[in-house]
What does this fold into?
Amino acid sequence: MTDYYSAFHMSPVPDPGPDATAPEPYRGIYAMPAFVTIPTTDLSASTDFWVGAFGFIDLYSFPDTLVHLRRWVFQDLLLRPADTVPAEPSTSSITFSCVLNQIDGIVESSRALGAEAVSGPYDTPWNTRDVEVVTPENVRVVFSAAKVFDESSREAQNLADVGITSLHNE
It folds into this structure.
């Protein structure tokens, strides 16, 4: 495919590597290009889980109505009260970027705070290391960290096979 172009300059995600540093939580107000709304039967407990396990901040709250959580810029999530939550985890998931040095901490804190299930970390064919967590609301959340790109790796070949031949910042 020849219509791909580098857009790394638009992303808050840092370049991959063992020394990559996650951006600080973003506290600015902007028109959100996308966000997820999660139903919960306990706003306070859900807020504690998402903040403690995943590093979100409580950007603002309307008591008993809504909690707006955020990690990095464009990683927004709204918690809303509900009478029930799904009995089983969804087959769909939401994925948030992170950096490699956050993966183990997400695994540990998710387990410590009572995540329903934690899978991984595991490496993907598209050059990321991921961990999947099922939250107390039965939401399937994936945290995905880019690995250093090795042009001689199987992952590089996988990407080349679909027409992506360069992953450097331009």
User: Anything to note?
Assistant: The first strand starts at residue 36 and ends at 40.
